[in-house]
Amino acid sequence: MSIPAFGVGTFRLQGQAAVDSVRNALDVGYRAIDTAQIYENEAEVGQAIAESGVPRGDLFVTTKIWVPHYARDKLAPSLKDSLARLRTDYVDLTLIHWPAPGNGVPVEETMTALAEAKAQGLTRQIGISNFPIAETRAAIAAVGRDQIATNQIELSPYLQNAALTAFLKEQGIPVTSYMTLAYGKVLKDPVIGRIAQRHDATPAQVALAWALQLGYAVIPSSTRRENLASNLLARQLRLTESDMAEIATLERNGREVSPEGLAAAWD
Fold this sequence. Notes:
Layout: E1 8-9, H1 15-28, E2 32-34, H2 42-52, E3 60-65, H3 72-86, E4 91-96, H4 107-119, E5 123-129, H5 133-143, E6 148-154, H6 162-171, E7 175-178, H7 190-199, H8 203-213, E8 217-218, H9 225-232, H10 241-248
Parallel strand pairs: 1-2, 2-3, 3-4, 4-5, 5-6, 6-7, 7-8
Helix pairs in contact: 1-2, 2-3, 3-4, 4-5, 7-8
């Protein structure tokens, strides 16, 4: 993969909580950080990075373009504003946050503008987020599949997205799983719990290891330093074929996020 397999997310983190979470994550060993314009915490992420002492070249920073900035004349200026808030000259990855069908800007225009931002050196890689198959096809038509570093989508043991992930694999587009713990719901699942007991692991580690073994990148978040450190240990957890088969049975189309006006028709 051209993107790190394990990063820290910052969704819903505001103010000092965002600063502390990113600072703790960097302190315990994370080197990839995921934020977005709409999270309204890019400045806090930038502050945490600046105060961490970790060299910028050792980090992988992702942000996402928000809907009002999708037009060709608005995207790059908005990304420059993000860079200023993040206190950096570039980000490693920039994603289009949601397809937002009907917003008046075609996917082709937005992706072309994103590719131009890459050509300007504002971002090292580009990609998409929350794009179903049809919208992913449009993105591919605009810039080519090789330009799309990832499709960041909601994925968990309760939402396994078989059709979309199979299509992305066929296209050679890496998957980033967000909300891998389904807002914590899978942590209480008895199947996950039994697997965790067998491996002397936490339920969170099991869910994250499941996603990693399927070849997905993960970006869990936490405000607690001990949870940030514990989640990282999922990288060393190897689930058995039987474990993976058990988790496969948990599919229930348990989507947690599908905002009206932002989401396109799911596959």
